[in-house]
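INTERNAL AUDIT FORM
Audit reference: QA-55
Scope: verify that the stored structure record matches its stored sequence.
Auditor: D.O.
Record contents follow.
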Amino acid sequence: MDLFLNMVRGFCMALADSVPGVSGGTIAFVLGFYDEFIGSLYVLTHGNLELKKEAVRFLGKLGLGWIIGMGSSVLVIASLFTTHIYELSSLFLGFSIFSLPLIVKEEKECLRRTSRILFMILGIILVLVIAAFNPTGGQGTNVEIGSLSPLLAGYIFVCAMIAICAMVLPGISGSTMLLIFGLYVPIVNAIKEFLHLNLSYFPVLCIFGCGILAGIIGIIKLVKNALDHHRSATVYFILGLMVGSLYAIAMGPTTLKIPQPALSWDTFHVFWFLMGGVFLAALNGLKAFTERKLHPEE
């Protein structure tokens, strides 16, 4: 059951990471395993051997679901972002909005320190600024990665570092950062080609993967220390990131390869918005059921 739960968590994180405007870190925070996720990444580089083993077991289960989710997104779900972008935007909007009261309830002790509300405002502003720099789509903004040069390799490495830092933080989408850098469509296409056994894109993906590892090592200690020593300010900041991400989700259609108008009242789908809440409730129900099975004495 633990394996299934963590695979579902990883799967949902991958679906979020693959969509501009939504962060896998948001999923982890909403479903209540963000601290465990950050802590496990942290001990991979700072913990003892026994802690490393536990972290590898947890991240391995999460990673397996993430790989399945990302593969499904690239091979199957990607087409939905073109044909049903407004339904998906409504779904993620519902998921994000319905998750806010759950987080407030979970972190109510931290949130009593209203003097930290400035950090929430800073979080909102950060996401709005990033969203304001989104490209409007179109092939002219995409980087050509077919012929790999040392300069391009360095660019891909640095962009991957920045993108994974964004993916780890709730509210900021790594996919949005890749869009800003003109690498979202090229990297998705590279993954798709590799999954179709086109090995010519393997060097690009290796460089991208190394950038991801470097980014994780660089940011995890900072996030872990913030949660451990400044939790109230950090939770307010994360809530600000999530509130700001609502705007990023609404602007998601404008970041497609063929840009579409932003989500509006005319294109908003109430049914899929409510389904976001239903999906969130189902995941939280699965979480509660699993915890009762794993810890029946509590």
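Auditor finding: record pair retrieved intact. The two ends are 17 Å apart (CA to CA).
Action required: none
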